[in-house]
Every structure is written in structure tokens, then in C-alpha cells.
Design brief:
This protein is α/β, with parallel strands linked by helices. It has helices at about 35-50, 55-60, 105-110, 130-145, 145-165, 170-215, 240-255, 255-260, 280-285, 290-310, 325-335, and strands at about 1-10, 15-20, 25-30, 65-75, 80-90, 95, 100, 115, 220-225, 270-275, 280, 315-320, 340-345, 355-360, 365. About 45% of the residues lie in helices and about 25% in strands. The protein binds adenosine-5'-triphosphate and magnesium ion.
Length: about 375
């Protein structure tokens, strides 16, 4: 997959910008607060369907504008494509691919695929489970179109269930039947999400292990597995019907406790990736350096899996990470990215022969 260009109007401090990209390594450089991350934010909107910096669209539209418009031109293995997005402070966003409006997010995500790596991801290992679930969700959305629909269905039902647990807590006896009906509706979506995430983690495991071995010389052993609230049997987690049945039971057998707690205590929203280093939970025992090596391994593996599933490497968007990595890890990461297209932002990266294209940004404008 190759990104040819991006047009941005009224996004944060960028008034009107057109940027062209080449194969290989593209560097966006400039001082702090000039708009470098905003360019990556614009591009990644097309991969994830929303901003990686905010959930509120009105926040990224320039202060003095009512609307923002972004477009990208990219090539996949079949053809050149053009996608655009129109955001407004007062209306719903409008999304287009090759001039045709797209109404469903699930049809928008998965066309242009990218892997994003920001300084925040360097603590992916130490952070709470929500960050690792987000890692799985963002990766899966781009390579498995049905995943988004399942998550949407599940989240809608979960919201209803939680509202019921809050509202009807005192009258629990009467609501047993209602909870049983919701359990039957939620279980297929919960099972689909669990099976897809668990399979993704199985694909991650070998790759993360290999990359981590190469970085550490093989002296430390890493393992990654999906941690589900219904079972820790990896084989069983690939059987949708078995997992569905486990969820039906899980969603009904703890209702008294959930009514007391006024929230749902089980489901994919509680799951995690269990990462162990030499048999110990990495979240508690990893050093800073080990966390960084692991984050790099996860991001490289994410691109490999996307390539295996779609036949093309995604575009890599790296936001100012080289300053956060030591020389050895940074060179390893860059060498592994090889010929993939990379767009990297930096305040201080030196120009080198490896960089194919340098874009300098000042006050939201390309100056060279
Ligand atoms: N809605 C908005 N309207 C106008 N300007 C905004 C808006 N949101 C953020 N900004 C400003 O946009 C500028 C660019 O931010 P951005 O994060 O892209 O900078 P950067 O070049 O990546 O900087 P750094 O090197 O510090 O990471 C900042 O000055 C920020 O305050
Ligand atoms: Mg930045």
C-alpha cells in the first residue's frame, strides 16, 4: 500500500496544505507545535475512522472554522484511490471513497491501512488493559471488516444491559428473564469478538517472539496470549459455538453480583493480552528497555499480520518516536521496516541517505 498524497483544510493549525509522499522513508520535520502530528492525525483518520488524539471531532477542526476537509490519494494492489472526509462542528461527518459517499464506518475502515506508532505506544505493556484491547480492536478493524459490526452490536447491547443494572437493581427478581434474553443476544457478538481477538493473538505470538529474540539476543523468553474471561483454553477459544455457550452462562450466572455492583462484570470489554517475560507478567516485571523492545515487536508484528491477511504492507506512521528509543532499538526498528513506506515526524532527525523525501513544516504550512 502506498500513500501518494494528502490534502488538509482547517485541521488544527493547518489552514490549507497539500503534501506528496514517496516510497520508502518520508520525514516530516519542523519545530514543536508546527503541525507535524496533525498531518499524521489526518492520514490516520482514514485507517481508523477517527482521530487517534480525540474522540470529539469539533476539537480537531480549527478554532476559527466551522468545517474541516481532508483527502488522501493512495495506491493499493488494484488501483489508485481517493478518499475524503468532511467534518463539521454542527453536522455529522461525511465520508467518500472515489467520489461515492460511504455511510457505514465498516465500509470506510479497511480500505487504506496504516500502523501508527506514537510515544504513547511505548508504554503499551505497562498501561491498563484498555490500551491493549484498543491495539487489538484497531488492528482487527482494518483487516476483518465484520469485526466492526460485531463490536458495534455488542457495545449497544452492553450499554442497554448496564443501564438496566443501574436502573432496575432493586427489583432484580422480576428482571431475571430480561437478563436471560439479553444474554442470548449478546453472546454471539461476544463470542465472535473473542474468537477473532484470540486468533489475532495466536498470530502475534510467534512474530513478537521472533522480533524480541532478535533484539535481545534470545536470552529472554516472551509469550503473548489472549486472556479471556470465559476460558484460558486456547483451543476452545477458536470454537465460536463453545465460546457462545460459555458467554450465555457467564452473562446469566452472576446477575445478583452485577446488580449489586450496578455494572457488567464479564465480557470482551474486560479481556486483555497476557504478555509474559520469562514466565512472569510483563506488566509488573518489564524494565523500561524491555517494554520498548516489546512495543516495537508488537508494531512490527501488526504490519506483518496485515500483510499476510491483505497481501500488502500497511503504511507506517511514526510520530516522533526516534527520540524516545535508544540508537540500537531505533536502528533495529528501521532496518526491519525495510522497504515499507514510512512517514516519520521529528524535530531533530538528521537528514540522511536513507530518507527519500523531506517535508519541512512551519506554522501549519509546507515551507520546503
Ligand atoms: N482546534 C485547533 N485549532 C487551531 N489550532 C490547534 C487546534 N488544536 C491544536 N492546535 C494547535 O496546533 C498546533 C500544531 O500541533 P501539533 O501537535 O501538530 O504540533 P507538532 O508539530 O506535532 O508539535 P510537537 O513537535 O510538539 O509534537 C499546536 O500549536 C496546537 O496548539
Ligand atoms: Mg507532535
Amino acid at each position: 500500500m502506498k500513500l501518494d498524497g494528502c490534502g488538509i483544510r482547517n485541521l488544527r493549525n493547518i489552514r490549507d496544505m497539500n503534501v506528496r509522499f514517496t516510497d520508502g522513508l518520508n520525514l516530516i520535520r519542523g519545530n514543536n507545535a508546527q503541525g507535524k502530528t496533525t498531518v499524521l492525525e489526518a492520514i490516520y483518520l482514514f485507517a481508523r475512522g477517527r482521530s487517534f488524539r480525540t474522540n470529539k471531532e469539533a476539537e480537531f477542526i480549527s478554532f476559527d472554522s466551522q468545517t474541516a476537509d481532508i483527502e488522501i490519494e493512495y495506491e493499493d494492489s488494484v488501483r489508485k484511490n481517493r478518499m475524503s472526509a468532511h467534518y463539521s462542528k454542527s453536522e455529522n461527518r461525511k465520508l467518500f471513497k472515489n467520489g461515492v459517499q460511504i455511510n457505514r464506518t465498516s465500509e470506510f475502515i479497511g480500505n487504506f491501512r496504516a500502523v501508527l506508532f506514537t510515544p504513547d505506544h511505548l508504554s503499551l505493556i505497562k498501561n491498563a488493559g484498555a490500551d491493549r484491547r484498543l491495539f487489538l480492536d484497531v488492528a482487527l478493524c482494518q483487516i476483518t471488516p465484520s469485526y466492526i459490526a460485531r463490536v458495534k452490536t455488542y457495545n449497544n447491547l452492553l450499554t442497554q444491559r448496564n443501564a438496566l443494572l443501574k436502573e432496575r437493581g432493586a427489583e432484580d427478581g422480576q428482571y431475571q428473564l430480561l437478563f436471560e434474553t439479553i444474554a442470548e443476544q449478546m453472546a454471539p457478538a461476544a463470542a465472535a469478538i473473542t474468537v477473532m481477538r484470540s486468533e489475532y493473538c495466536r498470530m502475534l505470538d510467534g512474530r513478537v517472539r521472533d522480533y524480541f529474540d532478535q533484539m535481545t539476543g534470545g536470552s529472554e523468553k516472551i509469550s503473548t496470549a489472549y486472556e479471556s474471561c470465559v476460558s484460558d483454553d486456547r483451543e476452545l477459544l477458536s470454537d465460536s459455538e463453545a465460546v457462545r455457550q460459555l458467554y450465555v452462562r457467564k452473562f446469566t450466572e452472576n446477575i445478583q453480583r452485577e446488580i449489586f455492583m450496578k455494572t457488567s462484570l464479564y465480557g470482551p470489554q474486560k479481556d486483555d493480552i497476557n504478555i509474559e517475560l520469562n514466565g512472569y507478567p510483563s506488566r509488573r516485571y518489564c524494565s523500561q528497555g524491555q517494554q520498548r523492545s516489546l512495543a516495537i515487536a508488537l508494531k512490527l508484528a501488526e504490519g506483518d499480520i496485515s500483510n499476510e491477511r491483505t497481501g500488502e504492507y500497511p503504511v507506517y506512521l511514526l510520530d516522533d518516536i526516534s527520540g524516545e528509543l535508544d540508537q540500537r532499538r531505533n536502528s533495529f526498528f528501521m532496518s526491519q521496516l525495510g522497504q515499507r513506506q514510512i512517514i516519520v515526524t521529528s524535530c531533530n532527525m538528521k537528514n540522511s541517505k536513507k530518507i527519500n523525501n523531506v517535508i519541512t513544516i512551519k506554522n501549519g504550512e509546507v515551507v520546503s
